[in-house]
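Bump. Still looking for Soluble quino protein glucose/sorbosone dehydrogenase structure tokens.
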Amino acid sequence: MGVLSKLTGAVALTTMLASDVKAQAAGTCSGVTGRFEPKLGEGYTYSVLATGLTSPRHIVIDSEGNLLVAEAGTQSVTRLVLEDQEDIVCVASSNEVASGSTNHGIALSGDGKTLFTSNLASVTAYTYDATTGSVDAGTQIVKGMSFQGTHPTRAIATSQWSPDTILVARGSGANVDNTTVDQAAARSIIKTFSISEGLQAAHDYAEGGEVLAWGLRNIVGLTEDPVFGGIWSVENQMDDIHLNGVDIHTNNPAERLSYHGILNATDNPQKGRNFGYPSCVPAWDPSSITSLPNLSVGDLFHPDDVPDPSDIGACDDTTARATGRLHFPAHTAPLDVKFTADGTAAYIAFHGSWDRSPADGYRVMRVDFNAEDGQPVEAADSTTAQVPVLENGDVGDCPNNCFRPVGLAFDAKGRLFVSSDTSGEIYVIYGA
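Sorry for the wait, here they are.
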């Protein structure tokens, strides 16, 4: 069934009246009704592009300006052909592009001619025609990722700076996955693979590729800075942690944004670094970790019931263990990150908490970057790096009655598309 036939109601382009006031309707796409009235950060407006999708996850814009959506509910890719209607964008038509190969991940090659999808077990490459939205039968290029554990998604990303490379992340098999103290477990890890070699014979995930980073509990979003070429990831950290028998999980550990260097650099000092999981986790609220009085935001520490860190090095040994470049509130669950074309800002989708009371997350936020070096403006121990963009009016209704951001994609006009899996919607943010 096409998306247009599933859409209902009327969509609103909104204008910001005040930072804490819900947006007001100012324009509509025929046949689309948004379920919620988000509040907006200063300078932003939004519209609802589509509803009725089945758990839309990551998204990408193709070379013709169409939106490709990975629908986890149907394991398919849906193509939304877009058209401008006055000052908003709407769906002109839709079609299914590929089926049975994705529960989350989607990416396009630099030339836009190859579509990649990922699921629990594998990564598939399709020859893709952006004009017609057609694909070939597809070729499996990475295999051997099945593991019936906690995290079934496999975030993927391609590179403009290293066009033959695809990045594939695989999360832990449990909240505390003790086997991942060893790289050979091939979980809680980001690996890179040659696309051309994979098209000849599929890479085995555990045995093939190169390790870009490990000790990362669950990477659900990966991206490349378009200006400096740096690779960045967003991570969902551990749940239900204790320290010296004290429950500190409400505000710890921090979620994090991590830097992994430039793929095609002759010497990338970030390559292959360990980020601590499962032995060491980053602090978000040091004040609640009273037994370690000298911690700062982002510092790694060793909670209860996890492996001893001494096999690699102490948690505070930064020569042995890398630390995040920015940190975010516990359990807010960042699921994607995307840069503006000029590289001066990255937008992050926070899916929202399940392991915290009161709930937190359920928003899109902006992080500002320096134009001079491609690094965040704020320091690693900042608690104010996030700038509000699109938020639920009342997170008390979450997670069952609110939008939950997942995937992000910019088009050539700088419009930011945002998927919400639980509500089956696609939002568009203007002014990003």
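The domain at 3-430 is CATH 2.120.10.30 (Neuraminidase).

Edit: fixed formatting.
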